[in-house]
Amino acid sequence: MSVVALLEAEALDPQLELAELTEAARGDGAIVTFVGLARPESREGNAVDAVVLDHHPTLTRQSLEDIAVACAERFDVSHVRVVHRCGTVPAGEPIVFAGASSIHRRAAFDAADYLMDRLKTEAVFWKREVGDDGAQWIEPTEADFTDRERWG
Amino acid sequence: MRIRLYGRLADAIAPEIELTAAGSTVGEVRRRLAADHAGAANSLARSRALIADRAVDDGQTVGESDELEFLPPVSGG
Q1: Assigned domain for B60 exists
Q2: How is chain A split into domains, by residue range?
Q3: Distance of alpha carbon B6 from alpha carbon A55, whole angstroms
Q4: Residue-wise pLDDT tens for chain A (152 aa)?
Q5: Taking a C-beta distance cutoff of 8 angstroms, is the pair A126, B74 a contact?
Q6: Residue B8's closest chain A neighbor by CA?
Q7: Do the Cβ atoms of A140 and B76 come within 8 Å?
Q8: For the structural domain made of A2-133, what CATH number should be given?
Q9: Nearest residue of B to residue A61, measured between CA atoms
Q10: Partner-chain contact B75 A127, CB within 8 Å
Q11: Which of A86, A126, A139, A141 to mutate to test the interface with B (most CBs of B within 10 A)?
Q12: Which residue of A55, A152, B16, B40 is most buried, as measured by CB atoms within 10 A?
């Protein structure tokens, strides 16, 4: 069993993260991963050049770790890996990698789903989309909170 | 004392400010900031207050050496 939760200030390479998880998952039968990208368009349809994620010096990483540990305790998974960007992420580039491995696939699917529902609502970030129209602060949507409630 | 602000508050006020507030309560500091920065009043009202990474309520008295933080609701990841 391993739980990895990283805050990455420079770049996030999903292939590298998958390779790390695959290496850890020897003996398992399933790996499920999710990669979130910075969207090039806001909810209002405006062009977005980059997403800027402000973070707290201690609580942000702690929130990632708390969610990853809770995931590992809740599901029958062998390894959990969460890597999240902070700082400026150009549109189209990865913001988050969330993955889990398990002996059978269902636990890994559920774990990845759980990781993202909690990260989307609870990870300690303050995000703004930056484009030609200026900067727009983002908060979780009602759908995000509804998804989070599925897990109790 | 030093006050750290995040997200919309850092944008509207500053990421970090110095304030003479020793002996005041957290709520008094919150109201003073809101009075000085009307555009941030709503975010301040919705923000959690922390000292040394621990949540404190508005009745808590702050000392000169305390570092008070106001965290608006998070965006999530």
Answers
A1: yes
A2: 2-133
A3: 8
A4: 999 999 999 999 999 999 999 999 999 999 999 999 999 999 889 999 999 999 999 999 999 999 999 999 999 999 999 999 999 999 999 999 999 999 999 999 999 999 999 999 999 999 999 999 899 999 898 999 999 999 99
A5: yes
A6: A137
A7: yes
A8: 3.90.1170.40
A9: B77
A10: yes
A11: A126
A12: A55
Q: What is the pLDDT of residues A60-83, one digit of tens each?
A: 999 999 999 999 999 999 999 999
- Which positions in chain B have a beta carbon within 8 angstroms of at least one beta carbon in chain A? 6-8, 10-11, 53, 69, 71-77
| Residues in contact with A119: Cβ distance below 8 Å, sequence separation at least 6, in sequence order | A64, A67, A82, A84, A96, A98, B76, B77
Name the residue range of residue B24's domain. 2-71
Distance CA A117, CA B76 (A): 10
Domain of B63, CATH number, reads 3.10.20.30
Question: Residue A39 — φ and ψ, nearest 5°?
Answer: -70, 140
What is the C-alpha separation between B13 and B36, in angstroms, rounded?
9
* A11 SS3 class: coil
